[in-house]
Amino acid sequence: MTPPPERAELAAALREVRQSTGLSLTGLEERTPYSKSSWGRYLKGDTLPPRDAVRALCRLAGEPDGHCLALWEIAEAAGSGRAAHAPADAPSRAEPAQEASAPPPPEGTNRNRSLRVAVAVAAVLALLASVVTATVLLTDDGAREESAAATASQGAAVAPPPRCRGASCAGRDPFNMLCGARPDTLTTYRTEAGARLELRHSARCGASWARMWATEVGDRIELVAPGPPRSAEVTDALDARAYLYTPMAETAPGTVVRACFHPAAAERGRECFEARVR
Q1: Segment 149-177, tens digit of pLDDT
Q2: 3-state secondary structure the chain
Q3: What are the backbone dihedrals phi and psi of residue 25, each rounded to the nearest 5 degrees, phi first?
Q4: Are 175 and 66 in contact (CB under 8 A)?
């Protein structure tokens, strides 16, 4: 059975990382909480691996995990039915909008944020519970898988502390610094060409960044905030299918952050949008 394209792309990336480790499936089993047969399924794309398995493999290879985690996020969203791309009625050009998952908070208050976070956490935990149940029932080595899934569930409920704060986050990757765990989405934007962009902020890290997806090779996004501009560019087809993040900038509540999209197509102009850190 052919795996979905999002999972197949993740599996291809994981196979490349595994090659750089020089480890066999048995070697992976000995160095991680996941069995040899489980790694076989993950690397073939038969099963979506736990997020912690992706991180563990990248650690063994001594490589940054941001790119593989972005592919994992897309595969997980596709597998759970949460579309990673914009809906047909997404905001049009020059119309920044709050996330569609909940109405924006009343002006001058922040009382709706706790409700949005509670709903999001409940949804994540419910999804993890279903994954744990399915894994225990279907795997041929349930005890090992159950233990690994329980560990992943606990890690999702209590996010590990970030590796930076404030000025020390400037210029760093949000995922490698563990700032990407449940960040605030300040605003979203859809470009004339259909690319999607977001401005994000981590209160735990005191830093903000921009991300984009549904892009084309050559597209570039630039974050304008305190300090030098931070940018990310789509360099190949793999980047175009993944979430692409700019490095972070130190930001405090009240700071206005701005992102500008520079399309690859010369006939299209730059598009900018902004938001204030809450």
Answers
A1: 444 444 444 557 888 999 999 999 988 88
A2: CCCCHHHHHHHHHHHHHHHHHCCCHHHHHHHCCCCHHHHHHHHHCCCCCCHHHHHHHHHHHCCCCHHHHHHHHHHHHHHCCCCCCCCCCCCCCCCCECCCCCCCCCCCCCCCHHHHHHHHHHHHHHHHHHHHHHHHHHCCCHHHHHHHHHHHHHHHHCCCCCCCCHHHHCCCCCCCCCCCCCCEEEEEEECCCCCEEEEEEECCCCEEEEEEECCCCCCEEEEECCCCCEEEECCCHHHHHCCEECCCEECCCCCEEEEEEECCCCCCCCEEEEEECC
A3: -60, -35
A4: yes
- The amino acid present at 134, given as its one-letter code, is A
List 210's β-bridge partners, or say none. 199
Structure tokens at 90: 């997404």
Give the pLDDT mean for 238-255: 89
The pair of three-digit structure tokens given for residue 157, joined into one six-digit string: 């409920």
Side-by-side strand order, sheet with 256-262: 230-233, 220-224, 256-262, 271-276
Which token pair is 145?
């898988």
